[in-house]
Design a protein that fits this description.
This protein is of the alpha+beta class. The chain has 3 helices and 8 strands. The chain is flat.
Length: 215
């Protein structure tokens, strides 16, 4: 059908000879003169591996051969309470690309304190410093008992002000409290700004950071 459309466009276009089309088209007859097997890729409707998955795995193998053993990485589930902790990147040459289920399986660990789905669409590799303020312009903070000082009203990000139209939280979490060098105590808040974008923020040691953004 694309070839038919191009042909008609050529007849009617600026470069067509005068009188090439003299009236409206009432019939288009297609006569196949060459048949061949369709080799297109079709993704599966209800999930599972498809030809596209196989092609992607082959492409990763070729890239690894060009970029080196540690040049291409793929995600592997390790678990965690924060979005940035749940996956790690491992060399593609160290895993079975044709059988990713084991690598991406979430396991049976409950991870108490982790947020419910849906998961964020974009997780920042390095959390971005931001400011969260209430209606009076005062910084929002979360007490040691997990109580928020006031409803968030403004998100300051990269010098821009964003009005907070909805929010939820806070959800405090304390990790590795038994290890002085790795202990973390923070609280997470979800906010929706005026343009409809939803973010996941965290406050730790009275400093706010943007962890992830929802679709």
């Amino acid at each position: 059908m694309e070839r038919v459309r191009w042909q008609l466009a050529g007849w009617i276009g600026d470069g067509a000879p005068t009188g090439a089309v003299t009236s409206g088209i009432t019939l288009v007859r297609l006569t196949p003169d060459e048949l061949r097997r369709d080799e297109g890729s079709q993704a599966r409707l209800w999930g599972g591996r498809s030809q596209a998955d196989t092609d992607a795995a082959r492409a990763v193998v070729r890239l690894s051969a060009l970029a080196g053993e540690h040049g291409v990485h793929v995600p592997e589930w390790v678990g965690g309470r924060l979005p940035g902790e749940r996956y790690r990147l491992v060399p593609a040459t160290s895993v079975d690309l044709d059988q990713p289920d084991e690598r991406l399986a979430r396991g049976a660990a409950p991870w108490p304190g982790s947020l419910r789905r849906p998961a964020p669409a974009l997780v920042l590799a390095v959390p971005e410093p931001v400011e969260l303020r209430d209606a009076e312009g005062a910084p929002v903070h979360v007490t040691g008992r997990g109580e928020i000082s006031g409803p968030p009203a403004t998100l300051l990000r990269a010098g821009a002000r964003h009005e907070v139209v909805a929010w939820a939280g806070p959800w405090p979490v304390e990790q590795r409290w038994w290890s002085a060098g790795h202990a973390r105590r923070l609280a997470r808040v979800q906010v929706v700004v005026a343009d409809g974008t939803a973010h996941l923020l965290a406050v730790e040691r009275r400093a706010w950071h943007l962890l992830a953004t929802y679709a």
